[in-house]
């Protein structure tokens, strides 16, 4: 079997070499070598494992990710990329975000499934005791877990909305997609007491707590989940930096529940909140327009560069990135696509 050498180069210059058979994908070979990269679906859908081949020839297998930028030379999804010769690959994150241990796989029981807002549910799981890990759940606010539909190999990644805890509680906000495999299971089969396999935590969408800049969180849809986790973390530690939350929805019925907003503002008195509705159906008194439009209005009044944490649909993230580039004031975007 033909084997090639692959060298991953992180954003901060670290080199991570490993062998990769011509029949293996780069992501799988990296994991076999002990490098666990940010990735969700492992099947060419989520786009989280995107990177850029800077040297060497490769073959890209089938995928359906809208996140893959075909206008960038060498842009690949590592889970679909197989080497035809030795490769050098530039990763879009620092070495600290490459794990050196296998991501834990545990069992959890469904405690509740309740409506969150229109076409979205709040799912709560409870981890079962593990001989090594006990019952505690440890993660960085903003990270996600991969959930597997019982009896299948189908798994989907969802961000945690709560905080690390000793009780093993996992809270998720999940948008019910039409014809989505996991959404269909949640609608038609899932019930309290069911056991589900949980893999995680994973993900690099986390707070830069060393930064002293004001923070602005921009969410759309269930991109609210990791943002809520981050805001709850800041509230728990009584963070005093200026903080703004912008949450966008198409209609009022898709907005974040008022109780969640009240809870985070009670813990973070300095938190400003802007709820944006694109096409209001009633007498809407808040911001009318998209979340990126609300961000533009907020940044127009900002006197210093902002750290912008954005999570939501790809179109929203592209609009946020374009706005920041146009503004040219040194704002920084940390983003996660749903």
Describe the structure.
There is one protein chain. This protein has 338 residues and is α/β, with parallel strands linked by helices. It has 3 domains: 3-97, Beta-grasp domain (Ubiquitin-like (UB roll), Roll), CATH 3.10.20.30; 105-202, Elongation Factor Tu (Ef-tu), domain 3; 215-337, Nucleotide-binding domain of ferredoxin-NADP reductase (FNR) module (Rossmann fold, 3-Layer(aba) Sandwich). The protein contains 6 helices and 19 strands. It has a 6-stranded antiparallel β-sheet with strand order 11-10-13-8-9-12. A 6-stranded parallel β-sheet has the order 17-16-15-14-18-19, with helices on both faces. A 5-stranded mixed β-sheet has the order 2-1-7-3-5, covered by helices on one side. The longest helix has 14 residues, at 314-327. The radius of gyration is 20 Å and the shape is globular. The model has no long low-confidence stretch (mean pLDDT 91).
What's the helix and strand layout?
Layout: E1 3-9, E2 15-21, H1 26-32, E3 50-55, E4 58-60, E5 75-77, E6 81-83, E7 87-90, E8 105-117, E9 120-127, E10 144-148, E11 155-159, E12 169-175, H2 181-188, E13 195-202, E14 215-220, H3 224-236, E15 243-249, H4 258-267, E16 271-277, E17 287-288, H5 291-299, E18 307-312, H6 314-327, E19 332-337
């Amino acid at each position: 079997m033909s084997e090639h050498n692959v060298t991953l180069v992180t954003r901060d210059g670290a080199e991570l070499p490993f062998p990769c058979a011509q029949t293996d994908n780069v992501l799988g070979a990296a994991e076999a070598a002990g490098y666990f990269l940010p990735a969700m679906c492992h099947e060419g859908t989520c786009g989280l494992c995107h990177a850029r081949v800077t040297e060497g020839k490769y073959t890209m297998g089938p995928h359906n990710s809208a996140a893959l930028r075909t206008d960038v030379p060498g842009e690949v999804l590592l889970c679909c990329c197989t080497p035809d010769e030795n490769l050098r690959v530039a990763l879009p994150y620092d070495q600290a975000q490459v794990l050196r241990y296998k991501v834990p796989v545990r069992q959890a029981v469904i405690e509740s499934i309740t409506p969150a807002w229109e076409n979205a549910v709040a799912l709560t799981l409870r981890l079962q005791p593990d001989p090594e890990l006990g019952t505690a759940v440890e993660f960085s606010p903003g990270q996600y877990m991969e959930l597997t539909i019982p009896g299948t190999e189908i798994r989907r990644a969802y961000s945690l909305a709560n905080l690390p805890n000793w009780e093993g509680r996992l809270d998720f906000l999940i948008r019910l997609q039409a014809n989505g495999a996991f959404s269909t299971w949640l609608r038609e089969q899932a019930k309290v007491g069911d056991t589900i396999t949980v893999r995680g935590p994973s993900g690099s969408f986390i707070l830069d707590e060393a930064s002293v800049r004001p923070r602005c969180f921009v969410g759309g849809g269930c991109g609210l989940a990791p943002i809520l986790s981050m805001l709850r973390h800041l509230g728990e530690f009584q963070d005093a930096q200026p903080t703004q939350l912008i949450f966008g929805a198409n209609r009022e019925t898709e907005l974040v529940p008022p109780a969640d907003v009240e809870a985070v503002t009670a813990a973070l008195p300095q938190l400003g909140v802007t709820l944006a509705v694109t096409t209001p159906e009633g007498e809407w008194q808040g911001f009318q327009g998209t979340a990126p439009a609300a961000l533009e209005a907020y940044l127009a009044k900002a006197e210093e560069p902002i750290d912008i944490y954005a999570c939501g649909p790809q179109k929203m993230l592209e609009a946020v990135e374009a706005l920041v580039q146009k503004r040219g004031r040194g704002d920084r975007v940390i983003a996660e696509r749903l």
